[in-house]
Amino acid sequence: MIQADMHMHTWFSTDSEACPCDMADEAVRKGLKTICFTDHFDKDDLEWGEEGIFDVDAYFVEMQKLQEEYAGKLNIRIGIELGLRTYLKDYYEELTKKYPFDFVIGSVHNVPYKKDVEGNILYTDPAAEKLFKDRTDKEAYRLMMETTLENVRTSDCFQTLGHLDYVVRYGKSREKEYSYTDYADIIDEILKLLIEKEKGLEVNSAGLKYGLPFAHPHPDVLKRYRELGGEIITIGADAHKPEHIAYDFGKVEELLKACGFKYYTEFSKQKPVFKQLI
Ligand SMILES: [Zn+2]
Ligand SMILES: [Zn+2]
């Protein structure tokens, strides 16, 4: 059984109202041994009105208190989900050096999608659907993959790449316009770079929660990562509410075994801990 959910949000994220203690209680109830809080830190992201960041000092105070309260019952790790942008490389490196995060997820939540009249690059979140306005799904997915590749190339401040291919959730015809082979040129480069940089790939079960027939990334991508020698797989449900913790982890476990993985990975103090898939 997968006993760690390494991706979840609380009220420190602008899009969640979950109390950290309710998340921890639900994780215990579901039989997990380890969880990692990974609240959103999307610097410069104003897509949803307020900037998607939080007070990291206050976060550590609250989460460290919780770690003490749950000692012996549940391992609580303190992580963060960074919204990568290439020009934020130095800023994020400083942030992740300043605080003792157990685990850093690098996610691409914003793509440069057009220029304004003065030539400034504008960013958008695929969930806001502006990305799809003047593009086919295929063009939008390709732009997202290219942006992800650029970020993986530039940034070194994270341990695992979050929800590769989640853009498919927001396309007009969703997974119908998506297959690994259509983007194999870019996806292979992303996977090779992750392996070369000893970074992990996340299996994010929110794809299933959103009604897609697969978790992110698509099983063909997972198989390819394994084929290329990739071994660091982290698993997260990306829960924003307690009930979504460990969502469909049974399916994820079967999938990982079918793709040839023998281990999944937890992180503590930014170091991988391999757990056998039995
Ligand atoms: Zn995310
Ligand atoms: Zn998330």
SSE blueprint and pairings:
Blueprint: E1 4-8, H1 20-29, E2 34-41, H2 56-69, E3 75-83, H3 89-98, E4 103-107, E5 111-115, E6 121-124, H4 137-154, E7 160-161, H5 184-196, E8 200-204, H6 206-209, H7 219-227, E9 233-236, H8 249-258, E10 263-268, E11 271-276
Parallel strand pairs: 1-2, 2-3, 3-4, 4-7, 7-8, 8-9
Antiparallel strand pairs: 5-6, 10-11
Helix pairs in contact: 4-5
The structure holds zinc ion (ZN) (2 copies).
Domain Polymerase/histidinol phosphatase N-terminal: 4-86
EC number: 3.1.3.15
InterPro entries: Histidinol_P_phosphatase_HisJ, PHP_dom, Pol/His_phosphatase_N, Pol/histidinol_Pase-like
Write structural notes for this entry.
Belongs to the PHP hydrolase family. HisK subfamily. GO terms for molecular function: histidinol-phosphatase activity. The chain is α/β, with parallel strands linked by helices and 278 residues long. It is built from eight helices and eleven strands. It has a single domain, classed as TIM Barrel, CATH 3.20.20. The protein has a seven-stranded parallel beta sheet. The protein has a two-stranded antiparallel sheet with strand order 5-6. The chain has a two-stranded antiparallel ribbon with strand order 10-11. α4 packs parallel to α5 (184-196). The mean pLDDT is 97. Bound molecules: zinc ion (ZN) (2 copies). One zinc ion is lined by residues 7, 9, 81, 238. The site of one zinc ion has 4 residues, from loops.
